[in-house]
Design a protein that fits this description.
By secondary structure, the protein is an alpha/beta fold. The protein has one domain. Strands 1, 2, 3, 4, 5 and 6 form a 6-stranded mixed β-sheet that branches. The longest helix is centred in the middle third of the chain and has 11 residues.
Length: 99
């Protein structure tokens, strides 16, 4: 899994049952060029997104939008209590830099 953290930007990777990895950022818009350069053929990078929505939630939303089944979320930053609660409610395991 990719594990990156740039300043206050969190990068999250959502693994899917279909073998794709959804790579999202807490920033608005495209992933930073340094992150996009690391994407592999089975990685789907965030193409847009609102600021204020955490990378972990964006990954799940994008997976569902693409009709993929999310299996696990890994975050380069500490997953906040709200995101942890959301992931627990939807039944998706997660890991972060603190676990």
């Amino acid at each position: 899994m990719v594990s990156l953290r740039f300043s206050l930007t969190t990068i999250a990777v959502t693994d899917t049952q279909e073998g794709y990895r959804i790579v999202t950022s807490s920033e608005r818009g495209l992933l930073r060029p340094q992150v996009r350069a690391m994407l592999g053929p089975m990685d789907v990078g965030q193409v847009t997104g609102e600021s204020g929505i955490h990378a972990e939630v964006k990954g799940i939303a994008l997976a569902i939008q693409l009709k993929l089944k999310p299996l696990l979320v890994a975050s380069a930053g500490r997953i906040c209590d709200d995101c942890a609660g959301f992931l627990n409610r939807v039944g998706i395991p997660y890991t972060d830099c603190a676990t």
